[in-house]
C-alpha cells in the first residue's frame, strides 16, 4: 500500500492527522505540489482529477478523496473510533464533518485560492470577488459553532472525531487565506487550542 | 421520526430517492422552500444553517446533511447496500459520491445559484461570473466520467449506489442551471437513461 501525499496542504494533511490519531503507518510517496507534481503523468494516471492524496492498495485499487481514504482505514482499524460508533453516532459525525467542510474549510479554501497571488496558476480564472465573499461566510459559521461548543468539548460530541480534524485544518488554513482568528469566540478558541495541542496536530 | 423535506430541490431529493431505493417510508413534514419556509423559526430551531433536509429522531436528535441522513438509514437497514459492502467497497463508493458532489453537483448548483434570476434572494451576493465559470467545470468532469463509464455500468462499479443518486440529481439539475446535456457522451447518456428509468427516479 502506498499513499501519494501532498504534505501540509489541507486535504493531504487531513489523512496524515487521521492516520496519526489511529497510530497507523503507511508508506508515503511525497508529491511536491509547489512544483505542480500532482499534475505529473504518474499522478494523473492514478487520478485524472489530479488531486491529492491518492491511496494505492496492494491489488492496485486507487482511492482518492481524503474522507474516502479515512473511511477505508476506519473500517479496517476501528479503534480509536473517529467516524462514529452506531448508526446515530455515525450520522452525527458525518453531519458535523460535512458542516465543517461546506461551511468552514470550503469557504476558507475559496478565499485562499481566489485571492492569494501564489494561486494564480492553480485557480483559473481566479475571481477575487468570489474569494472575498467567502471570508465572512467562514466567520459567520464560526459564530454558530461557538454557540454549539458552549455545550460540549468536541465538534461532534464528547469524543474527538474526524470533524475535529477537518475543523482544525480549516482553522490553520485561515492564516494563508488571510482571515483573522476570531479571538472573541471563547468556545471556538478553547476547542482549537485543545485539538491543536494533540500530538497528531504537529503532522 | 420525522423528515423535514424540501421536495424536488437537489439535496432533499437525494434522501427521497435513497429511501425509495431502500423501500423505507418516513413521516414527512413538507417545507416550501419557494416560500422560504426553510428560514422559519421552526426549521432554524432544528438547524441554524437553515438547510434541508432535516431528520428528527424520536429521541429528539437532529440529523442534517443529506449524506449523513442516508448513512443513518444505511446503518439501520443495510439492504439493498447503497454505500458499499466491505472497507474497500465503502471507500470506493465514498470516493465516487464525493467526486460527483465536488466536480458535478457542486458546479451545477453554483451555476444555478449564481446566474438564475430566481436565486437573487437566496445567494447574496449573486456573482454571475462565478456561475459562468462553473458550467465548463461540470462539463469537463462529465468528459472524464464518460471514459470511466466505458468500463462499467454504474458510477462506483457494477452496482447502483448513492453515487448514482448524486449523479442523476446533478444531471437533472443541469436543466434549471442552463447547462446543455452532453448528448455526445454516449456512456454518460447510457448511464443516465438507466438510472433515470428506475422507479426511485420519479420521486
The main sheet of chain A comes to: 4 strands, mixed
| Count of alpha/pi helices of chain A | 7
Residue-averaged pLDDT of chain A, rounded? 97
Question: Biggest interface between protein chains, with counts per chain?
Answer: A-B, 33 and 33 residues
What's the arrangement of strands in the largest beta sheet of chain A? 2-1-3-4
Order of helices and strands of chain A: EHEHEEHHHHH
What would you call the quaternary organization?
A: homodimer
Low-confidence stretches of chain A: none
Shape of chain A: globular
Q: How much of the residues of chain A is beta strand, in percent?
A: 5-15%
The structure class of chain A reads alpha+beta
Total strand count of chain A, please? 4
Q: What percent of residues of chain A adopt helix (DSSP H or I)?
A: 40-55%
